[in-house]
Each structure stands twice: as C-alpha cells, then as structure tokens.
Design goal:
Radius of gyration: 30 Å
Structural class: alpha+beta
Helix content: 25-40%
Distance between the termini: 27 Å
C-alpha cells in the first residue's frame, strides 16, 4: 500500500517540467519583448535629452526546475472493537523555478559595428522587398537620394539650424505609389559584382495614368534621363552607373532622427535641458513635418492608461499611444533594424556554469 502510493506520487511529478512550457515560454517571451521595446524607447528619450544611450543585451535565458516531494502515512491504533482507529496518506510536492539570465553590455567594437555602421543598401532592399513601405524606410534610414536631402543634420545630436527639402518626402511618396501598385521592384543582380537596383515598371507610351505620371516625376526629381526602367542603387559617388545614389544613415543616426519626434515638458525646454532647433529664417522647426509624420512619442505627468510602450524618465512618462498605428509601425521597423544590424560577438563569450541538481 505505501509502496504503491510512493510510486504514484513519483510518477505524477516527473512531468512537471514539460507542463511549465506553455505558460513559462509565453511569460518569458512577453517579458523579453516588452523589455526590448522599453530599452529602445528609453534610449530614444535619452538621445532627445543628449544623455548617453546605453544598451544591455540579454545573452541567454536558462531555467531549471527542481521538484521535491514528500509522502507520509499517518495513523493511530485502537482495540479491534473500537471505531476510533484512524489512517491517512499525505502527499506534498513543490516545484522550484531557478532562472539564470545573462546580460552583456553593448560596447566597443560590437556597439560601433551595430550602431555606427551605415545601414546597407541591401538591408533597405530587403525591408522594402519584404513588404515594408519604401517611403517609411527612406524617411527613417536615408540622409539623401541624389540631390534630395532628408534633414541630414538630424542624424546626430539636435542641430542648431535645420534645412528641409520637401522634395525628399515627395520622392519617397512617389516610390510608395509605385510600390503599392506593383510597379516598383528592388532587385539584386550581378554585373561584375553584386549590386542593388530599382526597376520602375511603367506602361510604355501611356502618359495619362497616375503610374506613368509618378514615374516621370520621380525621374525629374532624381535628375535621371532616359527611358530605361532599371536604375542601379548605390552609395554616393561609389559607381558612375549608380544613377540613384543613396546616402544611408547608421542605426544610431536613425535613432537620433526619430528622437526629434519625442515630446518633452515645457519646463525642460525653458530650463535648457533639451536643445531646440530653428530654421534658417529663425522660425521653429516642425519636427512632425520634418520626420514625415511617421513617429510621435508623447509625454505625460502620470502613467498613461493606453500605451503601446512607455518608460519613466526624468520624472515624466514617455509613451507611444496604442491607437497611434503610424508610430507603432515605425517603432516596429526600428526594432527590426536593431535585429538586422546585430553582429555576433567575436571570441568566446562568458562561460556559464549551471549546476545540475539530483
């Protein structure tokens, strides 16, 4: 009797680990995702205040479960004719979760390669070719296309004077028009070496359609001539055949640019805690217009009730409204860029020794 109970108790606890997977995996996934978003938003706010950004990577998550159990038989004896004799069986089980999480500061070469290296034309093509709006990709990640500039001074600490060229956003919108109608391809091909190119798929001889008009206006804005539909995309001055010359931002430059769309308290502006930019004529900069109206971080005194992501910094809450789909999409693009720019560390990492319990 006692042996059977003990065996049964042992059998019921051996699958405790597998039973934790549905909830534990979801919980760790949710927490890691939330902390990643919080860290990115926190560093955007830091850049707005010209504070030093800092990134702490989660290296690994290892969870151990230790199961302990106890089986006890209790009872009392009495004369055979007495009804007061008792017997009982006690089962006790405890599952102890022991997570081991490693963190690695992103510094030195790893930081430089991820955040200071310009985002490649191949990465831009990969994003635009996988469904991302080419307009959003250009607005976030590109300083200039041919002679059209996208507030290049904003790819660093808040500049004193800003010059804007509205033709850049017009060009990006026209690219998006072609993309939405299936008339724009960004391809990779080999011509001595591997290059990225754009193809405008237009209807020959049909100049009355919006597509043909968009294509013609794009050629005009970019200063390219000819009726060919394939244009090599490359860095400024790199190739004579790079008819669409692109100067990409670094990931840190992209974050500096988007940080200009972070609202700050009026008191911090008055006290000089946040730098302010002006146009060449001395008028204030409309950063919403400068960033293409694709991103906005709000500020509040108390914790917002409806926030997609929020952080508490310098005594205020900074957040993206959960209903602001435009800003959420841009933030999602930024998280993808952080992942795409990730570079595996060289050399051996920290040695993690995990004790194995009985």
């Amino acid at each position: 009797m006692v042996l059977g109970a003990t065996a049964g108790a042992t059998a019921c606890v051996t699958n405790a680990g597998p039973r934790t997977i549905p909830s534990a995996r979801f919980d760790y996934n949710e927490r890691l995702s939330r902390s990643t978003n919080d860290q990115i938003l926190l560093n955007l706010v830091r850049l707005r205040y010209r504070d030093t950004p800092y990134f702490l990577e989660v290296g690994s998550v290892l969870v151990q479960y230790q199961v302990t159990g106890r089986v006890a038989v209790t009872g009392s004896t009495a004369p055979a004719a007495s009804p007061s004799a008792t017997a009982g069986l006690e089962l006790d089980r405890e599952v102890d979760e022991r997570p081991t999480i490693t963190y690695q500061p992103l510094t030195g070469e790893a930081f430089a390669r991820r955040f200071l290296t310009p985002i490649s034309a191949g990465t831009l093509a990969l994003l635009a070719g996988s469904g991302w709006s080419v307009e959003r990709v250009f607005d976030c990640c590109v300083d200039a296309v041919n002679d059209l500039v996208n507030v290049p001074a904003a790819a660093g600490p808040t500049p004193a004077t800003v010059t804007m060229d509205p033709r850049f956003h017009e060009m990006a919108r026209l690219f998006r028009t072609l993309q939405k109608t299936g008339r724009l391809e960004i391809i990779r091909y080999t011509d001595g070496d591997s290059v990225t190119a754009m193809r405008f798929l237009t209807v020959p001889g049909d100049t009355s359609t919006a597509i043909a008009s968009a294509s013609a206006r794009l050629r005009e804005l970019l200063g390219i001539t000819g009726e060919q539909d394939l244009y090599v995309l490359g860095p400024s001055g790199a190739r004579a055949t790079a008819l669409i010359r692109v100067r990409q931002r670094s990931l840190l430059g992209t974050m500096f640019f988007l940080s200009q769309a972070v609202d700050v308290p009026d008191a911090d502006l008055k006290n000089g805690l946040v730098a302010q930019s002006v146009m060449a004529d001395g008028s204030p900069v409309d950063w919403e217009q400068a960033t293409g109206k694709i991103f906005h971080v709000k500020v509040a005194e108390s914790r917002p009730e409806r926030a997609f992501v929020s952080v508490h910094y310098r005594g205020h809450w900074f957040y993206i409204d959960d209903a602001d789909l435009e800003s959420k999409t841009t933030f999602d693009l930024l998280t993808h860029l952080v992942s795409l720019q990730s570079v595996p560390p060289r050399g051996s990492g920290p040695l993690l020794t995990v004790p194995v319990g009985p």
